[in-house]
Structures are given as structure tokens and as C-alpha cells.
């Protein structure tokens, strides 16, 4: 399961070179080599900072390498949701941050010869039920002044597409691209400016403070050692530290993408539906012709019994509306929805200028990730962006998210209790023919998965906060329904907030 972007990437070393003892310190350690982490690192290196980037897997292995890669200011129904909670001023600040992030990205791509396609973006209704949401989004766009350089967001009654389009918002002159060449160019610039990158190094703990931090790490080869820094940026999707309780302020969402070869594909533009099931569409140029990318089938992580059925429905929908479509790639990604609709970017705790976080991009990581990097680098270097209040990790505007946070955490409690009780129904269930199952009494739970005929047995207890994992039959992975940690069939950690894998069992 490799994304269209990562599939064409040049092979990387199987075992990244370990950090030698002399290189295990830096002025700033950036954790995570996605778009946010690498832009932050480059901006700091440009200013003369000693920067080290630590990546648990490989560059772009997380959300950035598995995105649909739309660089758009029209973001589904995002602006109308922010406006309803926070008013016009804060919404304009959010838009200004995204606009600056978009401008930086497009300028960087242009100056380094990276391919970008400028296309119109659409937030559209597939049915009559979705029209009200689309019209609310247009009203929000109008109120906060969303527009391209030469035209404002406008209503479109139709579009030249082969799928249902009942009307929607159109914003001209947005952009899309392949994000991997951008990441590779950022790595090159980082190293040219004296910064360093270490892949296969997972940060598990961060201790200390006041410009004296110790990061406990473990490499893919099993080595463990400490890395020292004055400051640290956690650009890991969701913060790996429980300080600040960000895991309780975010809802992890899993969504799926499929790429197709379509005879005479004529689709232009980027499309996102307002009604369910969600449809996200764009094209992608490749060396042997354009590919169609279709996304959707999203669900809260660990809450869907059979996500593969939703992916199959998405595939059937695509082939119905694009005759002759042949699937070439399939992948999925994880995003984090903030309870108050706005990202969290800044100190992990109020007044802490040593550890910083960037999270809550809610599926719009291209512009939000670049904006977060600009805000973080500015803060570390002693500056401040005018729009940064909308991205603050700690702010009075979070009060609007308290009701949603309470609902989310009541749901977490329900899944925690259910996870320890429900497996008792599978006592004696034995080895599944395929897929994964958790069985046994609460005092002896066991997870068993069979993938490609090979059996794996693990403790199903998530090492983050003790949730019981469930099986995702679309990704063939274990997922924790509490806060979104994910694990391979053998228990290997795929993404946090957990910092170690499930315990293997014989």
C-alpha cells in the first residue's frame, strides 16, 4: 500500500546511517520530516540555527507522503465552520495564515523548478441535501474576503464532470502538486545550510526544560541513546508527548485514496463534496499520462468495523462514473481534527519556550503545514505573525471547543470500557482465517492476525493509555480507538501518540 507520490520515489537506504556520538546534539531538534518539520528546519537553518531533524521512518512517510496534495484556500466547509464558532476576525486570521503558507509554497516551488498545476477548486454538493452547506461556505467566503488575485469565490451551478454536481463554490487559481519533490528539495537545502537529517530514529521521550532538553530515542536497528537540544519542535501529526493533553483535543480520522488510469481523462479542477459519502477528486500528471485520484471512505480511527467495505464502495462509485478506470495505487492517511476547528501551533504548555507543537490541520496540511512552519520559525527566532492568534496552541478561543472535547472524551471512555469487555465474546474463537481479532477475558486478552497466510500474535493493549486495539481490514493494521495510534500486524508502531509498539506474544 504505497501512495502514487511515494511509489515513484528513488530507493532509499534500507538502514539509515545512525547518529554518531558527536552528532547527538543540536540547537533545535525537529521531530518529524513531513512538510511542517522540514520547512521549519529550513527556515531555522537559513537563520543560522544548528538544526537536526529526527524522523522515525523515512521522509514523507506520514501524512505528507499520503495526502491528496491540494494547495487550496477553499477547504470544503472549513471557513463556515470556523466562522460559526469564532467570528469573522479569527476566520480572517486563519485564512491569512493559509494564504501566506500557500504563497510560500508556490514561491518555493517556482524558484526551484518544481511542477505545480494551477487549477480551480470546488466545494460542491452531490445532492440537494448538500446544497445548504455549500451555500453557507460561499457566504463565509464572501464575509471574510476569500478570493484569488483576480476573482472572488463564486457560485457554480454546474461543472464539466461525469459525476453528480448539484452546485457549489468555485475558487479560481488554486494549486495541486506532487509533494515528494518538494520534500526532497527541502532536505537538500537543509543539508546545504548545515542542517542534518536522521531517518529511522524514533523519539520516545523528551525531558528537561529551559533550553536543556534530553530526547530519548530508539533506532530501527534497536539502538537506544539520548539526543540533546536547547529547543524541540514536535511536527509528528499528533504530539508524542501527553503534556498539554493534545490527544484529548484532537479526533484522529482515517481516509483513503485510490489512483486510476482512465481512458481519455479530461477532469480538471479539484473537487470536494459537502455531503456524504465524501468524494475528493483531482488529477495527477505522471510520466505515462494523467492519473485520477479519488479520496473518501473516512472514519474515526478504530471506530469502523469494516472500513474495507467503504473503500470498495468508493472504488465502485469511481468505476461507475469513469468507465474503463483501472486502479493503479491505493493508500490511506491519518489527519487530526481539532475540537475548536483551529490548528494548535506553539508551545506545548503556556510559557514553555523549549518544546513546540504543530497539529490539528484537519486534512489541509499543505497550506496549514507551511503556515505552522512560518509561525514556529518566527516565534523561535523572536518574531511574530499578525495572523498567529488563529493558530495558537493555547488561547481563549479554545473555549468554543469544550463541548466537543467533552463529547469526544466521553466517547473515548466508552471505547476504553468496551475494548476490555467485548473481546470476551470471542473466547475460543481461535485463529482467524484472515484479518485480525481480539479475544479472551479481560485478564488475558490476545490479538491474533493472519495476513498472507502468516499468523501474528500480540498483546492488544495500546501502550499509550491502555486502549484495546481493533483491526482495520482495509489497511491490515491494528488501530487504537482512543487516540489513533496504529500498529502493523506484528505490533510494530506505525504512528502515535504511542511511542512503542504492541508487545508480541508467542
Automatic annotation (TrEMBL):
**Among its keywords, does the record have Iron?**
yes
A molecular function GO annotation: monooxygenase activity
Keywords on this record?
2Fe-2S, Iron, Iron-sulfur, Metal-binding
Family matches, as InterPro entries: FAD-dep_OxRdtase, FAD/NAD-bd_sf, Rieske_2Fe-2S, Rieske_2Fe-2S_sf
Q: Which Pfam families match?
A: DAO, Rieske
**At the top level of its lineage, which domain of life is listed?**
Bacteria
What sections of the protein cross the membrane? none
Cellular component (GO) terms are: cytoplasm
Under the heading PANTHER family, the entry gives: RIESKE 2FE-2S IRON-SULFUR PROTEIN YHFW-RELATED, SARCOSINE DEHYDROGENASE-RELATED
The molecule here is called Rieske domain protein
